[in-house]
């Protein structure tokens, strides 16, 4: 597929909303804006400023990404696994600081690694994401320079994040050694941008990646607020996770502090899967130096504080993990790669096994240059159902109707793929 313009990427439904194009544009002609209908970020281009340099398209991870060459180049001495990519070693662990561990997503490994690296002078700052102070429904990527700022940015944000819009700040800051924390699509964009920008490649010394099944659109959070009869204008703070594991969502408005345990019941509805996330085959952040996910394992089901699954892909990241473990900053235990896969069965099924069924029945697809697994017949039925759900959600009348549909019907609707495809295994 030949694409010359970032707007074409967006029109073909291939934009991941990462914000890389905004940062690399030398003319500042691109701005990531929220498309209210879709509930995602898309690029807006001021054609008068654009000088057709094509840097945006060269660093765009949306329409093509050569996984094979990139991962071989980055992690050449690694083992390879078709489901989790290249790796040196796999672990389960958590921060030994109880406050950090309890108040993060799944063990606080990312927050602890960033804080310790900052204290040891390994990094001068970290590109992370917090929710905006004046508008807590909107995420704000920024360069954290202190322990407090890193903590402020902890916990998963289940809404679109244009993380790479802040690469501009990263390139211009006087800080020399920066860590980045992002979802697979963010790291894909950063890796592509690093290929054409030496300064960026030298400054980013470690890429911490989060596992990701998909990022719910803003419309997911909006439905949840409506179901709770909360006025989004009056929201003072939103934390999607925290308070132990798997944790709860905390919403503060002008009057109350509300704790919601079953938030995923609404936010995670198929209506709110961004179309582009259906075409991503990277669940464990295969281009990150270290990847982190929840420990969804039976033996950890009673762990109410939190532990993370960790995949280390570089010697540098492995040494960092070992040294933090020796200095008692983190607790680290080696696990077999089979355990990593067991902890992510549903997510890996979606990203790897049923992936091809979504690509085959849809018009425009990204080029990844990797071999995919063969889906089952029922995966095609599930894929049609997901595409139809997203299509339905594109109508404003349907979105207005959604809050009035009884919860039980919504839950049954979400369970449909599991009901028709019960034997699925990765
Ligand atoms: C959209 C999404 C989908 C996920 N899907 C899965 C999954 O399928 N399986 C699984 O096991 N784990 C998944 N995770 C990862 C999991 O929720 C934890 O982020 C991970 O286990 C790390 O936990 P931690 O305690 O070490 O992170 P913390 O110490 O709490 O730090 C989290 C870090 O991630 C950054 N961050 C949070 N949200 C975002 C975001 N949306 N974009 C960019 N940066 C962000 C924060 O700024 C912070 O630095 C998902 C996370 C997100 C945000």
Give a structural overview.
This protein has one domain. The longest helix is centred in the C-terminal third of the chain and has 17 residues, at 377-393. An 8-stranded mixed sheet has the order 7-6-8-9-13-14-5-15, with helices on both faces. It has a 3-stranded antiparallel sheet with strand order 10-11-12, with no helix packed on it. With 426 residues, the protein is α+β, with helices and mostly antiparallel strands. The protein is globular and about 55 Å long. The protein contains 19 helices and 15 strands. It binds flavin-adenine dinucleotide. Residues 104-111, 128-129, 153-158, 161, 163, 181-183, 186, 210-213, 215, 292-294, 308, 344, 347 line the site of flavin-adenine dinucleotide (FAD). Keywords: Iron, Iron-sulfur, Membrane, Metal-binding, Transmembrane, Transmembrane helix. This is Coenzyme F420 hydrogenase/dehydrogenase beta subunit domain protein. Pfam families: Fer4_7, FrhB_FdhB_C, FrhB_FdhB_N.
Summarize the structure.
The protein has one domain. 36% of the residues lie in helices and 19% in strands.
Instruction: Output mean pLDDT.
Output: 95
Number of helices: 19
Shape: globular
Helix content: 25-40%
Keywords: Iron, Iron-sulfur, Membrane, Metal-binding, Transmembrane, Transmembrane helix
Organism: Methanobacterium lacus (strain AL-21)
InterPro entries: 4Fe4S_Fe-S-bd, 4Fe4S_Fe_S_CS, Co_F420_Hydgase/DH_bsu_N, FRHB/FDHB/HCAR-like, FrhB_FdhB_C
Domain 4Fe-4S ferredoxin-type: 5-35, 41-70
């Amino acid at each position: 597929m030949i694409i010359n313009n970032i707007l074409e990427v967006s029109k073909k439904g291939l934009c991941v909303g990462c914000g890389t194009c905004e940062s690399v544009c030398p003319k500042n002609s691109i701005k990531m804006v929220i498309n209210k209908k879709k509930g995602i970020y898309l690029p807006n281009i001021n054609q008068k400023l654009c000088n057709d340099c094509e840097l945006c398209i060269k660093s765009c991870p949306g329409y093509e990404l050569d996984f094979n060459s990139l991962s071989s180049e980055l992690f050449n001495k690694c083992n390879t696994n078709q489901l989790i990519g290249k790796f040196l070693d796999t672990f389960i662990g958590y921060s030994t600081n109880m406050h950090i561990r309890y108040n993060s997503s799944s063990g606080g490994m990312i927050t602890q690694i960033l804080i310790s690296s900052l204290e040891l002078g390994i990094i001068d700052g970290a590109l992370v994401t917090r929710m905006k102070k004046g508008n807590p429904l909107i995420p704000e990527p920024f360069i954290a320079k202190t322990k407090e700022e890193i903590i402020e940015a902890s916990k998963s944000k289940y809404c679109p994040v244009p993380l790479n819009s802040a690469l501009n700040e990263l390139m211009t800051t006087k800080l020399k050694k920066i860590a980045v924390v992002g979802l697979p699509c963010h790291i894909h964009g950063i890796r592509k941008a690093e290929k054409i920008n030496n300064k960026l490649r030298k400054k980013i010394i470690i890429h911490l990646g989060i596992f990701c099944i998909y990022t719910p659109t803003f419309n997911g959070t909006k439905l949840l607020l409506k179901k709770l009869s909360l006025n989004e204008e009056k929201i003072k703070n939103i934390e999607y996770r925290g308070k132990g594991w798997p944790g709860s969502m905390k919403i503060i408005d002008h009057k109350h502090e509300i704790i919601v345990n079953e938030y995923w019941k609404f936010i995670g509805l198929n209506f709110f899967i961004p179309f582009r996330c259906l075409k991503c085959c990277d669940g464990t952040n295969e281009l990150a130096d270290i990847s982190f996910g929840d420990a969804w394992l039976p033996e950890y089901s009673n762990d109410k504080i939190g532990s993370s699954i960790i995949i280390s892909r570089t010697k540098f990241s492995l040494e960092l993990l070992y040294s933090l473990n020796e200095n008692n900053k983190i607790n680290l235990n080696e696990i077999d790669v089979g355990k990593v896969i067991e902890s992510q069965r549903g997510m890996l099924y979606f990203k790897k096994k049923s992936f091809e069924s979504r690509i085959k029945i849809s018009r425009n697809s990204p080029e990844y240059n990797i071999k995919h697994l063969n889906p089952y017949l029922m995966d095609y039925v599930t894929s049609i159902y997901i595409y139809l759900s997203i299509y339905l959600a594109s109508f404003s009348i349907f979105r207005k109707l959604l809050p009035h549909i009884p919860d039980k019907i919504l839950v049954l609707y979400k369970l449909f793929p599991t009901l028709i495809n019960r034997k699925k295994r990765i």
